[in-house]
Design a protein that fits this description.
Blueprint lengths: L2 H8 L7 E7 L1 E10 L2 E10 L2 H7 L4 E6 L4 H4 L4 H4 L4 E5 L3 H5 L2 H4 L8 H10 L3 E5 L18 H4 L3 E3 L5 E11 L14 E9 L1 E3 L4 E6 L2 E9 L2 E6 L10 H4 L2 H15 L4
Parallel strand pairs: 1-4, 1-5, 5-6, 6-13
Antiparallel strand pairs: 2-3, 7-10, 8-9, 11-12, 12-13
Helix pairs in contact: 2-10
């Protein structure tokens, strides 16, 4: 046998990592502090990607992040560029950030509709997940505003027309039946540490694989050549407390979600 044959036998073939584009889960805080006559201001910047990045940045998965304030500059310029990613996730950033770039809002210039691009991305084989939060689905005071957008067309749920938050400061216990779907494989019978979620209405053609009360907790669907997941609670505090985010079950769940989304027809 040739030396080349032995070399190929000794060196395992490299498997391409799945590429995840995670968008959102950042914020800026402007603080005003008054001490008698004097007033002071301070600004800070925060991210909520600690747990999800740790869960997904592995030997199998490559994690890429676009913060909320950089969506204008860093979002892929066309659907083909978007299709370089196996999965796109949106977490806690509203539709306005995608639909009102600076060039359109201030300069009245035509720009690509990023939410329409996400729809075309899924129809052409991409995997998409919307993660719950105060600016996901409809969110606080309805400011998430994803209803009647192209993203709703490729989601396994329909959005409400108003504030859709369901707050549970006492904590929820979510029942899991691992036999229902491969996303739930290896999960415990109960999930705790969930403090709230976005209420949504399941579509008849899709499957709810976990409920919170009578509402979807996790729903899945297939659209065109692609797949999507509605995960109606947060992937980070405050709705998803460290009690769950810090567990092996959390990491397993997110790995399972990504792998299922990747196994469409792309």
């Amino acid at each position: 046998m040739s030396k080349r044959f032995y070399k190929e036998m000794e060196e395992p073939k490299m498997v391409r990592k799945k590429k995840v584009l995670f968008i959102g889960e950042t914020w800026m805080v402007h603080t005003v502090e008054a001490k008698g006559f004097d007033i002071f201001t301070a600004d800070s910047y925060g991210t909520g990607t600690e747990y999800i990045k740790k869960a997904l940045d592995t030997d199998e998965i490559e994690f890429h992040h676009i913060p909320c304030h950089l969506i204008d500059q860093l979002f892929p310029e066309n659907v083909n560029k978007l299709l370089e990613y196996d999965v796109v996730m949106i977490s806690d950033v509203g539709a306005n950030t995608f639909l009102l770039p600076v060039e359109t809002f201030l300069q009245c210039k035509k720009t690509p509709n990023k939410l329409q691009m996400i729809k075309e991305y899924v129809l052409n084989g991409g995997g998409f997940c919307m993660i719950g939060g105060y600016l996901s689905f409809m969110g606080i005071e309805g400011k998430g505003r994803y209803n009647d957008t192209p993203v709703e067309d490729i989601m396994p749920v329909r959005f409400l027309k108003h504030d859709d938050r369901v707050e549970h400061p006492e904590g929820l216990e979510i029942s899991i039946d691992a036999s229902l779907h491969e996303i739930l494989e290896g999960m415990p019978e109960k999930i705790t540490g969930i403090l709230g979620y976005n209420r949504a209405i399941p579509k008849e053609s899709c499957q709810v694989i976990a409920y919170v009360d009578k509402d979807p907790f996790i729903a899945v669907g297939e659209f065109g050549k692609g797949r999507s997941v509605a995960y109606t609670t947060d992937c980070a505090p405050h709705w998803s407390a460290a009690e769950f985010c810090g567990t092996d079950s959390y990491r397993r769940l997110w790995r399972n979600i990504v792998m299922w989304l990747c196994n469409g027809n792309k």
